[in-house]
From TrEMBL:
It comes from Zizania palustris (Northern wild rice). Belongs to the amino acid-polyamine-organocation (APC) superfamily. Cationic amino acid transporter (CAT) (TC 2.A.3.3) family. The keyword Membrane applies. It is found in: Membrane. The chain crosses the membrane at residues 57-78, 85-106, 112-134, 180-206, 218-235, 247-265, 286-310, 330-353, 407-426, 447-464, 470-489. It is a multi-pass membrane protein. GO terms for cellular component: membrane. This is Cationic amino acid transporter C-terminal domain-containing protein. The lineage of its organism: Eukaryota, Viridiplantae, Streptophyta, Embryophyta, Tracheophyta. One of its GO terms (molecular function) is amino acid transmembrane transporter activity. It holds the Pfam family AA_permease_2.
Length: 503
């Protein structure tokens, strides 16, 4: 692997296949980044400083996943699913755990270099696919950062309007946004200011930005726990009956909606180069943050559906309205503070992840080398961080990006799907690694057949859930799990016996 300043381009042995411009372009688009390239960079001693422990990584994932939505989406989905929204969050969490396991495995394979989904795709498929994944991620992150910044600005304006002499006197262009040219331009001054502040914190150092995230995330978690504890004393168990008033179908539909409430655990994978013990801590950070989010979401769901009948939940602020109906006005203030803390951490982690992705592409030469430069004393990708902050500030300050936020779910699902495919591809290409990570001593084709059987059974069970009652579906699920587990154990025993007899 050759190095040119901060660039780490692939060596000619696998970069270009010779010939004309078109053949060289095709060869460049289809090349893969070998594992030796990652190992060479890790051994070079260049890069970011390892300052994040396992606790920092868990809070990083929680900070990225739980925003203001925990106080809103729980009640919104409960209006259709009823108290069964609890099961919706459990199902969505279980689906995310499967994808989190893919991230955890890949993080343990590439523990020393930033890049996340882009890096995994580059190693598993080719440069073109990796760049397309990066483009999709950047579209999501840039629009998402601008959208969150405008929401955070609106919350700050609401707090300022609690001051009597400011109420009704704050111009709309400061926080809520004032539209010009028929709505094409929507000026918001406060959102770019907030982005500049957070960008400055991230540029100052990862230790300092991690401290801010730790404080805000801890505050958010404490507020959620206080809200849950206060609501427990107002729960009427009769509100949980019927538990699924619209059937299991509405619960499954709710799970598809709340799935995106868990998005963010993948941010931990982009901190590989700054984790103290990445091979051990990254999987713990990814799975630990996701499980913590599942517990918090389920607790809020149980409280909000137990406090008031699900049919009476509001649309905009269901949790706050539920506590206000019980006369607990102070809890609504806590919810507002928690929403601000949640949006702040989500925005902070989003900007952090973007800069690390730009850093990875700058090193690979797919972007100008300025993106690969690291500050000599602050040990942060200064140019990349300033760039992502400026892009988000321009979008948030001039455009109402909330109208584009609906496309973010497509990018998220695409990224998760590609990462899952990377696990299969890397296991297939690297038999030694696949033997280490696979189920016991099962061969690759046995694992592949088993995965296809499980996928087919999942589709079959999903059809049962819609056609018959959920009780029947659960019985079938239990039976199929037992059958699949029996086949898996049999495969493992036979494979282990054959392996022992041939060695």
């Amino acid at each position: 692997m050759e190095e040119d300043g901060a660039n780490h381009r692939p060596s000619p042995s696998y970069s270009y296949g010779g010939g004309g411009f078109l053949s060289g372009l095709c060869a460049a688009a289809l090349r893969r980044k070998p594992l030796s390239a990652h190992a060479a960079h890790a051994a070079s001693g260049e890069g970011l400083v390892r300052q994040l422990g396992v606790f920092d990584l868990v809070l990083l994932g929680i900070g990225a996943s739980i925003g203001a939505g925990i106080f809103v989406i729980t009640g919104t989905v409960a209006r259709d699913a009823g108290p069964g929204v609890t099961i919706s969050f459990v199902l969505a969490g279980a689906a995310c755990v499967l994808n989190a396991l893919c991230y955890a495995e890949l993080a343990s394979r590439f523990p020393a270099v930033v890049g996340g989904a882009y890096l995994y795709t580059y190693a598993a498929f080719n440069e073109l696919t990796a760049f397309l994944v990066f483009t999709q991620l950047m579209l999501d992150y840039h629009i998402g950062a601008a959208s969150i910044a405008r929401s955070l600005a609106s919350y700050f304006v609401q707090f300022l309007e609690l001051i009597p002499f400011l109420k009704g006197h704050i111009p709309t262009w400061i926080g809520h946004g004032e539209e010009f040219f028929g709505g094409v331009v929507s000026v918001n001054i406060l959102a770019p200011v907030l982005l500049i502040i957070l960008t400055a914190i991230l540029c100052y150092g990862v230790k300092e930005s991690s401290a801010v995230n730790t404080f805000m995330t801890t505050l958010k978690i404490v507020i959620v726990i206080v809200v849950v504890c206060a609501g427990v004393f107002e729960v009427d168990v009769s509100n949980w009956s019927p538990f699924m008033p619209n059937g299991f179908k509405s619960v499954v539909t709710g799970a598809t909606v709340v799935f995106f409430a868990y998005v963010g655990f993948d941010a931990v994978a982009n901190s590989a180069e700054e984790a103290k013990t990445p091979q051990r801590d990254l999987p713990i950070g990814i799975l630990g943050s996701l499980l913590a989010c599942v517990i918090l979401y389920v607790a809020v769901c149980l409280v909000i559906t137990g406090m008031v009948p699900y049919t009476l939940l509001g649309e905009d602020a269901p949790l706050a309205e539920a506590f206000a109906a019980k006369g607990l006005k102070f809890v609504t203030v806590l919810i507002s503070i928690g929403a601000v803390a949640g949006l702040t951490t989500t925005l902070l982690v989003g900007l952090y992840v973007q800069s690390r992705l730009y850093l990875g592409l700058g090193r690979d030469g797919l972007l100008p080398s300025t993106f690969s430069k690291i500050h000599p004393t602050r040990h942060t990708p200064l140019h990349s961080q300033i760039w992502v902050g400026c892009v988000a500030a321009v979008l948030a300050g001039l455009f109402n990006v909330h109208e584009l936020s609906h496309i973010l779910s497509v990018g998220t699902l695409t990224g998760y799907s590609v990462v899952s495919a990377c696990v299969i591809t890397l296991r297939w290409n690297d038999k030694a690694t696949s033997r280490h990570h696979s189920l016991g001593s099962m061969s690759i084709w046995q694992e592949g057949v088993l995965c296809l059987i499980i996928i087919a059974l999942c589709g079959f069970v999903a059809g049962l859930c819609y056609r018959f009652s959920y009780a029947t579906a659960f019985m079938v699920i239990a039976f199929l799990i037992a059958v699949v587990a029996g086949f898996a154990l049999q495969f493992r025993q036979v494979s282990a016996f054959l392996w022992a007899s041939t060695n």
